[in-house]
Amino acid sequence: MNKIHAAITAVHGYVPDYVLTNHELETMVDTNDEWITTRTGIKERRVLKGEGLGTSDMAVPAVEGLLKKRGIGADEIDLIIFCTSTPDRVFPATANILAGKIGATNAWGYDLQATCSGFLFGLATGSQFVETGKYKKVLVVGGDKMSSIINYKDRATCIIFGDGCGAALLEPNEEGYGIVDSILKSDGFGAPYIKQEAGGSVKPASHETVDANEHYFYQEGKVVFKFAVTRMAEVAAEVMEKNNLTADNINWLVPHQANKRIIDAAATRTGVNAEKVVINIDRYGNTTNATLPLCLWEWEDKFKKGDNIILAAFGGGFTWGAMYLKWAY
Questions:
Q1: CB neighbours of residue 242 within 10 Å
Q2: Distance of alpha carbon 82 from the chain centroid
């Protein structure tokens, strides 16, 4: 019997209609289009508008598009892993909320929180359930409504983030296609540098925490950039070296869309040519858990069966990692 790999058999994504441009941000904070573009590579990002809408509301069209593309019903899904830093609520899990909305009546699920590395960690986790032979269809969703925790008076962070969601279906493959290897890392040293200060058990919500803006996203940009620019590039190169891959062997590098300079550093470290690097940060900004699946969705028609693809991510915590997969369709 051939080894079972967990292969991505369908991807789909969703971004909200509302486009928040750099020029609109100029009217909100002391910044300008040139400054934002030069430092981040971002021109615009999407924002989910509407009362009472959360991350699961972006996941529904993403998953329904995936199911239609694959030609299966939601009742065929065995497991949902929802990777998000902005769940609909602290509990119940957004995975369970999504299952109810799409009619995944035979699936169990849970949320996975690893900030921007979440979707990569989710793929690695989901692959284990497939490789054991226990489950046939595992849905990995990556989505965030970052606008819900961004302070649009803080020019250091409001220029970076956008909203969006993407999903991938993992199924067993015995032809050698699918997830081949991954290297995942974390270091609690980074906990103070990217965080949401209040709202958890250490500092529950109160009038004081709200008045102090402690429920907004916070990061120390210089520390995060320095760590991200080295670690994401290093781990991408590491997974290539471990699997005897060179830049010539790689068809596509799919990096987390945090900052154009971080993406460029990963490409330089791996030696992958610019035309092989998947980028959409200019249109969506950093959608956190959604960046990798949105990239896979937008480039899906360019991928060919058997293509060697490297995924790489870095996030708060700190968390980071890279994955080598062979495209299955």
A1: 13
A2: 11
Residue 50, amino acid = G
Catalytic positions are 116, 256, 286
Q: Report the C-alpha gap between 152 and 216 in whole angstroms.
A: 10
Helix 221-242 and helix 260-270: axis angle, to 10°? 30
- Among 57, 80, 46, 83, CA closest to 287: 46
Residues 6+ apart with CB under 8 A from 172: 4, 5, 6, 7, 130, 131, 133, 136
Residue 297, token pair as written in the block: 């969705």
pLDDT at 1: 63
Q: What pTM was estimated for this model as a whole? A: 0.98
Matching residue, tokens 């958890």: 200
Round to whole Å and give the CA distance between 195 and 160: 15
What are φ and ψ of residue 99, in 5° steps? -55, -40
CA distance 287 to 174: 33
Residues 201-241 have pLDDT tens digits of 999 999 999 999 999 999 999 999 999 999 999 999 999 99
Q: Could you give phi then psi for residue 108, rounded to 5 degrees?
A: -110, 165
* CA 167 – CA 119 distance, rounded (Å): 9
Alpha carbon distance 322, 313 (integer Å): 6
